[in-house]
């Protein structure tokens, strides 16, 4: 049985040169180091040793590269998604020229929840029965082994993290600090996808050190954003809009995608600042003449 295996790092002897590269050997089996896998300026000498990472090429043959990836077989790391393919799954980068596949069987059934290019998945490298490399997403238990417990001092802190699992009523998130977090669907706007980067705040620290996260802005932060939205809308309409604090909630939601309460808070802030005023069902920017 060949001792050389894809997904591992070996130090091999340079046996001979070929038109398309060099053959390396462990004394029993040979593997090709193609010229394209030799960095510019790196000299190769016959009978010397080279440390290489082994992978399977596009024809399923064992090959070598001098580029050592960020992880090897049975190691875990966050891998960047470089491409998704509806038929196969998501391809992730391990730092070599050839990306590896996370099978669609290891991804959500709904393709809309698949990671996008630039998202991250916590994976390990494995080899299938044909000796081909693929990436396998970490289980809950593996994530738990990497986690640290949050304390009461972390309450209300802002955190960033990555979605690592999708649940029926929410999303499991691993924060950059190492906390295992849960975001209930009521504590966010919209849907989160696997591998997505998020920013939120800790709204509860549980007894086991895990945390609940909210991706909604704090009231004053949301008010600032909503006020900017109304101000921009007014400016784009020439300084007047046919909405005021007595407009119906359905109209407000349809036009501004915010609740009536949020609309009134934002409008109230602009009025308090002296930026706008209301009259006969309309809201106007100061210095703007009333429309007929």
TrEMBL record:
Pfam family, one: CvfB_1st
Source organism, top-level taxon: Bacteria
Domain called S1 motif: residue spans: 156-216
UniProt GO MF annotations: nucleic acid binding
Family: Belongs to the CvfB family.
Listed name of the protein: S1 motif domain-containing protein
Organism: Pullulanibacillus pueri
